[in-house]
Amino acid sequence: MTPGDDTGRQHGAAEDAGFEGGAVESGAVEGGGFEDGAGTGTVAPEAPKRSRRGGRSARAVGAGAAVVTVACVVGIAATGAFGGAGGEPEATAPSAPPKTAKVERTTLTRTETVDGNLGYGTATAVQAAAPAPPATGGDSSGPAAGSAGSGSSQDGQGDGAAAGSGVVTWLPDPGDVVKRGAAVYSIDEAKVPLLYGSTPLYRTLDVGAEGKDVQMLEANLAALGHSGFTVDDTYTDGTASAVESWQEDLGREQTGTVATGDAVVAGGARRIADVQAVRGSAPSGSILTWTGTERIVTVDLEVQYEDLVDEGTEGTVELPDGTTVAAEVTDVGTAATAEPADAGGGDAAPGTAAEATLPVTLAVGKQKELGRYEAAPVDVTVTAETREDVLAVPINALVALQEGGYALETVGAKGIAYVPVELGIFAGGMVEVSGKGVSAGMVVGVPK
């Protein structure tokens, strides 16, 4: 539409980045050059601060801050644009807008995008084990060690070579994956294997021992192909025979008993992150650190957005090259934590605390889609709100009224009329609208 158009108004462009609940936050209409009671104005709500990559604040996608240039209809009630005696919209100009669109009945989904990190999760340590107490019979469930499945962080286990006993003769390399039965490291040329479970070896196991650690050991022996015993919580002669066979496979002395330093227990396969022990030295302290074997995404989510996620919430992860992959929330932390402002280097003022956050973990089902990325900053998008079966128009179809509120420029047989509307959510370049006289299929004006 040219400046000489007889309607004296012009639609402007709208960027889909933000209104909430139909309100324009901190907005102001700056009009200028009005002709015949109408002109253009810019609704410029204050934009929220965007976090740097790796920060913790959410960036609205389809909801947040926006700069929207719309028509500003001045004194519309006084000019009769909304009514005659019946208050129904009437044509205000004979000319048609430069372009039109139709009111759609659709589903709108508003999303939030936050900063996240791709990696293998938190690395935990495998410690050299303390000497085991003497073998004892009877029931003993022992202390339960926390564990998690492959792809998750896991508490470090204390099961390893007894501190100060023997010499480290073999160690894995960072990036190696260790599975059930495979060596985590070797002491005096004897392999110390990985067993799957949640109960660590905290005592010497022999015939007559009972407990969850016995059941864990027997379950692993069975999975490794050994037989002649029942997988339960009792260490029998059959268990001892199977242990001897297992020890032979490992190149260990065939004692039929299992001590704390004879194996390492974890919840599943593990990927070596770093190695601290040195070949030729006695095992002491942390021997190595490891993680899960699958890449995951972690997010430090500001507590104001905690209602957006729950276990099972689906999300989309954008990699540095722009590729997107599907992900699902598998864990949401229960305790909020806040870093001092001088520790994180964030935007907080000196002497103030940073935003409290919740740790959120997302699993990526199709690991191949992550390509060769092993660690990288990523953008994580989750659904914030979904509205089904609503009426919607392109955002730039909105007309800002001088007296407040919004209208649509409708195009009908009688010409152009302005119909006031209430706004709902903004998403994907569309805005939810409602009001008297608004219906699906209605033709409305939009800019070119």
> Helix count, per DSSP?
4
Our Rg estimate from Cα atoms comes to 33 Å
For the record, the count of structural domains works out to 3
Separation of termini?
Answer: 8 Å
Q: What is the number of beta strands?
A: 26
Strand content: 35-45%
Order of helices and strands: EEEEHEEEEEEEEEHHEEEEEEHEEEEEEE
- In the sheet with the most strands, the strands line up as 6-17-20-19-18-21
Which parts are unreliable, with pLDDT below 50 for 5 consecutive residues or more?
1-69, 74-87, 90-94, 138-159
What about the largest sheet? 6 strands, antiparallel, barrel
Residue share in helix: under 10%
Structural class, judged by helices and strands?
mainly beta
Calculate the mean pLDDT score and round it: 77
In one word, what is the shape?
elongated
3D structure, described in words:
With 448 residues, the protein is mostly beta strands. It has 3 domains: 29-113 and 386-446, conserved putative lor/sdh protein from methanococcus maripaludis s2 fold (Beta Barrel); 124-291, no CATH class; 296-384, no CATH class. It is built from 4 helices and 26 strands. The strands form 5 sheets. It has a 6-stranded antiparallel barrel with strand order 6-17-20-19-18-21. Strands 7-16-15-10 form a 4-stranded antiparallel sheet, with no helix packed on it. Strands 9-11-12-14 form a 4-stranded mixed sheet. β11 (183-187) and β12 (190-196) form a beta hairpin.
